Amino acid sequence: MRQARAIRIRALAVATVLIAVPVAACGGEPATKASVCGAYDELGQQMVKPHPFSDSVIFRKTRELADQASRYEQSAPVRAHADRLREIGEGDSTSSTDLGNATTAIAGLCGHPLGIASTTDQSTDTPPAPPPPSDEGGLYDALTDGDGATAATAAIDKRVERQSAVTRRRPQDPDAWSELARLRFQRAGIDGIAADGTYTDEGKARLRLAVQAWERHVALDPQPPDARTAKLMVSAYRELDEPAKAVGAQTIVATATKPPNSNDYAQLAQLAYGAGLTRAGDSAADKAVALAEPNTRTALRATLEQLKSDAAKQSG
Hints:
68% helix
Protein backbone atom coordinates (compact mmCIF):
# COMPACT_ATOMS: atom_id res chain seq x y z
CA MET A 1 0.00 0.00 0.00
CA ARG A 2 2.85 2.40 0.82
CA GLN A 3 4.45 1.63 -2.55
CA ALA A 4 1.18 2.27 -4.37
CA ARG A 5 0.76 5.54 -2.46
CA ALA A 6 4.31 6.63 -3.35
CA ILE A 7 3.72 5.89 -7.04
CA ARG A 8 0.49 7.84 -6.92
CA ILE A 9 2.11 10.83 -5.27
CA ARG A 10 4.88 10.83 -7.88
CA ALA A 11 2.32 10.51 -10.67
CA LEU A 12 0.39 13.45 -9.34
CA ALA A 13 3.57 15.50 -9.18
CA VAL A 14 4.44 14.74 -12.78
CA ALA A 15 0.84 15.43 -13.82
CA THR A 16 1.21 18.89 -12.36
CA VAL A 17 4.37 19.45 -14.45
CA LEU A 18 2.69 18.24 -17.64
CA ILE A 19 -0.46 20.24 -17.13
CA ALA A 20 1.52 23.32 -16.18
CA VAL A 21 3.24 23.52 -19.57
CA PRO A 22 0.31 25.08 -21.48
CA VAL A 23 -0.64 27.16 -18.46
CA ALA A 24 2.83 28.64 -18.18
CA ALA A 25 2.75 29.43 -21.85
CA CYS A 26 -0.23 31.66 -21.16
CA GLY A 27 1.57 33.39 -18.30
CA GLY A 28 -0.54 31.69 -15.62
CA GLU A 29 0.41 30.59 -12.13
CA PRO A 30 -1.42 28.16 -9.84
CA ALA A 31 -4.68 29.76 -8.76
CA THR A 32 -5.59 30.37 -5.12
CA LYS A 33 -8.96 30.13 -3.42
CA ALA A 34 -9.02 33.93 -3.33
CA SER A 35 -8.40 34.25 -7.06
CA VAL A 36 -10.97 31.57 -7.95
CA CYS A 37 -13.61 33.09 -5.70
CA GLY A 38 -12.74 36.57 -6.93
CA ALA A 39 -13.42 35.52 -10.53
CA TYR A 40 -16.54 33.66 -9.36
CA ASP A 41 -17.86 36.77 -7.60
CA GLU A 42 -17.16 38.96 -10.64
CA LEU A 43 -19.21 36.59 -12.77
CA GLY A 44 -21.92 36.61 -10.12
CA GLN A 45 -22.04 40.42 -10.18
CA GLN A 46 -22.81 40.25 -13.89
CA MET A 47 -25.59 37.75 -13.19
CA VAL A 48 -27.59 40.20 -11.09
CA LYS A 49 -27.57 42.96 -13.68
CA PRO A 50 -30.65 43.53 -15.82
CA HIS A 51 -30.60 41.37 -18.97
CA PRO A 52 -27.16 39.91 -18.15
CA PHE A 53 -27.01 37.52 -21.10
CA SER A 54 -27.26 40.26 -23.69
CA ASP A 55 -23.87 41.62 -22.61
CA SER A 56 -20.62 40.12 -23.88
CA VAL A 57 -19.00 40.84 -20.51
CA ILE A 58 -20.64 37.80 -18.96
CA PHE A 59 -18.93 35.52 -21.48
CA ARG A 60 -15.57 37.16 -20.82
CA LYS A 61 -16.05 36.73 -17.07
CA THR A 62 -16.98 33.09 -17.64
CA ARG A 63 -13.75 32.52 -19.56
CA GLU A 64 -11.78 34.20 -16.77
CA LEU A 65 -13.38 31.91 -14.21
CA ALA A 66 -12.59 28.90 -16.41
CA ASP A 67 -8.95 29.96 -16.45
CA GLN A 68 -8.83 30.28 -12.66
CA ALA A 69 -10.63 26.96 -12.13
CA SER A 70 -8.24 25.12 -14.47
CA ARG A 71 -5.27 26.30 -12.41
CA TYR A 72 -6.68 25.56 -8.94
CA GLU A 73 -4.53 22.64 -7.82
CA GLN A 74 -6.26 22.08 -4.47
CA SER A 75 -9.51 20.65 -5.82
CA ALA A 76 -10.13 18.27 -8.71
CA PRO A 77 -13.89 19.05 -8.78
CA VAL A 78 -13.15 22.76 -9.21
CA ARG A 79 -10.70 22.03 -12.03
CA ALA A 80 -13.26 19.73 -13.60
CA HIS A 81 -15.57 22.70 -14.14
CA ALA A 82 -13.06 24.47 -16.37
CA ASP A 83 -13.92 22.75 -19.65
CA ARG A 84 -17.64 23.45 -19.39
CA LEU A 85 -17.07 27.05 -18.30
CA ARG A 86 -14.68 27.58 -21.19
CA GLU A 87 -17.23 26.12 -23.57
CA ILE A 88 -19.91 28.50 -22.28
CA GLY A 89 -17.52 31.47 -22.37
CA GLU A 90 -16.61 30.82 -25.98
CA GLY A 91 -20.26 30.61 -27.01
CA ASP A 92 -22.83 33.32 -27.53
CA SER A 93 -25.73 32.15 -25.38
CA THR A 94 -26.23 30.72 -21.90
CA SER A 95 -28.54 30.91 -18.90
CA SER A 96 -28.40 31.14 -15.13
CA THR A 97 -29.16 27.42 -15.00
CA ASP A 98 -26.24 26.52 -17.27
CA LEU A 99 -23.81 28.68 -15.32
CA GLY A 100 -25.10 27.46 -11.98
CA ASN A 101 -24.75 23.83 -13.01
CA ALA A 102 -21.22 24.51 -14.26
CA THR A 103 -20.08 25.98 -10.92
CA THR A 104 -21.43 23.66 -8.21
CA ALA A 105 -18.00 22.75 -6.79
CA ILE A 106 -16.92 26.40 -6.96
CA ALA A 107 -20.07 27.33 -5.05
CA GLY A 108 -18.99 24.91 -2.34
CA LEU A 109 -15.44 26.30 -2.29
CA CYS A 110 -16.60 29.92 -2.06
CA GLY A 111 -19.52 29.25 0.27
CA HIS A 112 -22.39 30.67 -1.78
CA PRO A 113 -24.24 30.09 -5.04
CA LEU A 114 -23.44 32.07 -8.14
CA GLY A 115 -24.89 35.59 -8.05
CA ILE A 116 -26.09 35.36 -4.45
CA ALA A 117 -23.87 37.26 -1.99
CA SER A 118 -20.11 37.26 -2.42
CA THR A 119 -17.24 35.48 -0.77
CA THR A 120 -16.35 38.50 1.35
CA ASP A 121 -19.97 38.76 2.52
CA GLN A 122 -19.88 35.41 4.27
CA SER A 123 -18.51 36.85 7.53
CA THR A 124 -21.13 39.57 7.80
CA ASP A 125 -24.72 39.57 8.98
CA THR A 126 -25.93 41.46 5.93
CA PRO A 127 -28.37 39.29 3.99
CA PRO A 128 -27.47 38.76 0.34
CA ALA A 129 -29.35 40.64 -2.29
CA PRO A 130 -31.76 38.40 -4.20
CA PRO A 131 -31.22 37.81 -7.89
CA PRO A 132 -33.34 39.75 -10.34
CA PRO A 133 -36.72 38.32 -11.38
CA SER A 134 -36.24 35.69 -14.06
CA ASP A 135 -38.44 33.33 -15.98
CA GLU A 136 -35.58 30.89 -16.47
CA GLY A 137 -36.28 28.93 -13.31
CA GLY A 138 -33.72 26.20 -12.71
CA LEU A 139 -30.91 26.67 -10.25
CA TYR A 140 -31.84 30.14 -8.98
CA ASP A 141 -35.29 28.97 -7.96
CA ALA A 142 -33.67 26.26 -5.85
CA LEU A 143 -31.07 28.55 -4.29
CA THR A 144 -33.05 31.46 -2.93
CA ASP A 145 -33.90 29.79 0.40
CA GLY A 146 -31.39 29.57 3.26
CA ASP A 147 -27.70 30.27 3.17
CA GLY A 148 -25.65 29.74 0.05
CA ALA A 149 -23.75 26.56 0.87
CA THR A 150 -26.83 24.82 2.26
CA ALA A 151 -28.90 25.87 -0.74
CA ALA A 152 -26.25 24.67 -3.18
CA THR A 153 -26.16 21.31 -1.42
CA ALA A 154 -29.94 21.01 -1.46
CA ALA A 155 -30.09 21.89 -5.15
CA ILE A 156 -27.59 19.27 -6.25
CA ASP A 157 -29.11 16.67 -3.91
CA LYS A 158 -32.45 17.16 -5.65
CA ARG A 159 -30.82 16.76 -9.05
CA VAL A 160 -29.04 13.57 -7.92
CA GLU A 161 -32.34 12.20 -6.61
CA ARG A 162 -34.16 13.00 -9.85
CA GLN A 163 -31.41 11.47 -11.98
CA SER A 164 -31.36 8.35 -9.80
CA ALA A 165 -35.07 7.99 -10.56
CA VAL A 166 -34.28 8.30 -14.27
CA THR A 167 -31.82 5.40 -14.08
CA ARG A 168 -34.45 3.28 -12.34
CA ARG A 169 -36.91 3.98 -15.12
CA ARG A 170 -34.33 3.53 -17.89
CA PRO A 171 -31.69 1.13 -16.54
CA GLN A 172 -30.40 0.32 -20.04
CA ASP A 173 -29.81 3.98 -20.97
CA PRO A 174 -26.05 4.67 -20.79
CA ASP A 175 -26.59 8.44 -20.95
CA ALA A 176 -28.72 8.32 -17.82
CA TRP A 177 -25.96 6.57 -15.89
CA SER A 178 -23.28 8.93 -17.17
CA GLU A 179 -25.30 11.94 -16.05
CA LEU A 180 -25.80 10.38 -12.62
CA ALA A 181 -22.06 9.79 -12.33
CA ARG A 182 -21.38 13.42 -13.22
CA LEU A 183 -23.89 14.74 -10.68
CA ARG A 184 -22.59 12.49 -7.92
CA PHE A 185 -19.06 13.65 -8.62
CA GLN A 186 -20.17 17.28 -8.37
CA ARG A 187 -21.98 16.51 -5.12
CA ALA A 188 -18.80 15.03 -3.63
CA GLY A 189 -16.99 18.30 -4.31
CA ILE A 190 -19.44 20.58 -2.52
CA ASP A 191 -18.81 19.58 1.10
CA GLY A 192 -16.60 16.51 0.76
CA ILE A 193 -13.25 18.27 0.52
CA ALA A 194 -11.12 19.15 3.57
CA ALA A 195 -9.25 22.42 4.03
CA ASP A 196 -6.05 20.85 2.68
CA GLY A 197 -7.76 19.99 -0.61
CA THR A 198 -8.10 16.24 0.01
CA TYR A 199 -11.40 14.39 0.06
CA THR A 200 -12.94 13.55 3.41
CA ASP A 201 -14.24 10.07 4.16
CA GLU A 202 -17.73 11.29 3.28
CA GLY A 203 -16.43 12.83 0.07
CA LYS A 204 -14.76 9.56 -0.91
CA ALA A 205 -17.97 7.66 -0.19
CA ARG A 206 -19.75 9.97 -2.63
CA LEU A 207 -16.99 9.44 -5.19
CA ARG A 208 -17.56 5.69 -4.91
CA LEU A 209 -21.21 6.22 -5.75
CA ALA A 210 -20.13 8.30 -8.74
CA VAL A 211 -17.83 5.60 -10.11
CA GLN A 212 -20.49 2.95 -9.56
CA ALA A 213 -22.81 4.90 -11.86
CA TRP A 214 -19.97 5.42 -14.33
CA GLU A 215 -19.21 1.71 -14.44
CA ARG A 216 -22.86 1.01 -15.26
CA HIS A 217 -22.49 3.49 -18.14
CA VAL A 218 -19.38 1.72 -19.46
CA ALA A 219 -20.90 -1.76 -19.01
CA LEU A 220 -23.73 -0.78 -21.36
CA ASP A 221 -21.06 -0.31 -24.08
CA PRO A 222 -22.06 3.12 -25.41
CA GLN A 223 -20.44 4.11 -28.69
CA PRO A 224 -18.65 6.26 -27.85
CA PRO A 225 -18.50 6.49 -24.03
CA ASP A 226 -19.08 9.91 -22.49
CA ALA A 227 -15.60 11.51 -22.63
CA ARG A 228 -16.64 14.59 -20.63
CA THR A 229 -17.70 12.49 -17.65
CA ALA A 230 -14.68 10.25 -18.14
CA LYS A 231 -12.47 13.25 -17.32
CA LEU A 232 -14.20 13.53 -13.96
CA MET A 233 -13.84 9.82 -13.33
CA VAL A 234 -10.08 10.00 -13.86
CA SER A 235 -9.95 12.33 -10.86
CA ALA A 236 -12.36 10.15 -8.88
CA TYR A 237 -10.39 6.96 -9.44
CA ARG A 238 -7.14 8.66 -8.52
CA GLU A 239 -8.64 9.93 -5.29
CA LEU A 240 -9.89 6.42 -4.53
CA ASP A 241 -6.47 4.84 -5.23
CA GLU A 242 -7.73 2.82 -8.18
CA PRO A 243 -5.00 3.62 -10.73
CA ALA A 244 -5.87 0.92 -13.29
CA LYS A 245 -9.42 2.21 -13.53
CA ALA A 246 -8.09 5.76 -13.86
CA VAL A 247 -6.10 4.49 -16.86
CA GLY A 248 -9.31 3.16 -18.40
CA ALA A 249 -11.10 6.47 -17.98
CA GLN A 250 -8.15 8.47 -19.32
CA THR A 251 -7.99 6.16 -22.34
CA ILE A 252 -11.55 7.16 -23.16
CA VAL A 253 -10.61 10.84 -22.85
CA ALA A 254 -7.49 10.53 -25.00
CA THR A 255 -9.07 8.53 -27.80
CA ALA A 256 -12.22 10.69 -27.92
CA THR A 257 -10.39 14.02 -28.28
CA LYS A 258 -10.31 15.22 -31.89
CA PRO A 259 -7.78 16.22 -33.01
CA PRO A 260 -5.73 14.09 -30.62
CA ASN A 261 -3.89 15.96 -27.89
CA SER A 262 -0.35 15.34 -26.65
CA ASN A 263 -1.19 16.27 -23.08
CA ASP A 264 -4.03 13.73 -22.92
CA TYR A 265 -1.67 10.94 -23.97
CA ALA A 266 1.07 12.17 -21.63
CA GLN A 267 -1.38 11.95 -18.74
CA LEU A 268 -2.41 8.49 -19.92
CA ALA A 269 1.24 7.42 -19.93
CA GLN A 270 1.90 8.72 -16.44
CA LEU A 271 -1.22 7.00 -15.10
CA ALA A 272 -0.32 3.73 -16.80
CA TYR A 273 3.24 3.75 -15.46
CA GLY A 274 1.95 4.51 -11.98
CA ALA A 275 -0.48 1.60 -12.25
CA GLY A 276 2.29 -0.77 -13.37
CA LEU A 277 0.89 -1.02 -16.91
CA THR A 278 4.22 -0.51 -18.65
CA ARG A 279 3.21 -1.56 -22.16
CA ALA A 280 0.20 0.74 -22.13
CA GLY A 281 2.40 3.51 -20.73
CA ASP A 282 4.96 3.10 -23.49
CA SER A 283 2.28 3.20 -26.20
CA ALA A 284 0.72 6.35 -24.74
CA ALA A 285 4.14 7.97 -24.26
CA ASP A 286 5.01 7.38 -27.91
CA LYS A 287 1.77 9.02 -29.00
CA ALA A 288 2.27 11.93 -26.60
CA VAL A 289 5.75 12.65 -27.97
CA ALA A 290 4.64 12.29 -31.59
CA LEU A 291 1.81 14.78 -31.04
CA ALA A 292 3.92 17.30 -29.09
CA GLU A 293 5.45 20.42 -30.58
CA PRO A 294 8.85 19.52 -32.05
CA ASN A 295 10.77 21.77 -29.66
CA THR A 296 9.19 20.08 -26.59
CA ARG A 297 9.54 16.43 -27.60
CA THR A 298 12.94 15.80 -26.05
CA ALA A 299 11.94 17.25 -22.68
CA LEU A 300 8.61 15.41 -22.70
CA ARG A 301 10.27 12.10 -23.54
CA ALA A 302 12.77 12.60 -20.71
CA THR A 303 9.98 13.39 -18.24
CA LEU A 304 7.99 10.31 -19.19
CA GLU A 305 11.07 8.09 -19.11
CA GLN A 306 11.86 9.35 -15.63
CA LEU A 307 8.34 8.56 -14.49
CA LYS A 308 8.61 5.07 -15.96
CA SER A 309 11.92 4.51 -14.18
CA ASP A 310 10.61 5.77 -10.84
CA ALA A 311 7.49 3.60 -11.10
CA ALA A 312 9.59 0.53 -11.87
CA LYS A 313 11.81 1.18 -8.85
CA GLN A 314 8.82 1.57 -6.57
CA SER A 315 7.19 -1.64 -7.79
CA GLY A 316 10.48 -3.54 -7.56
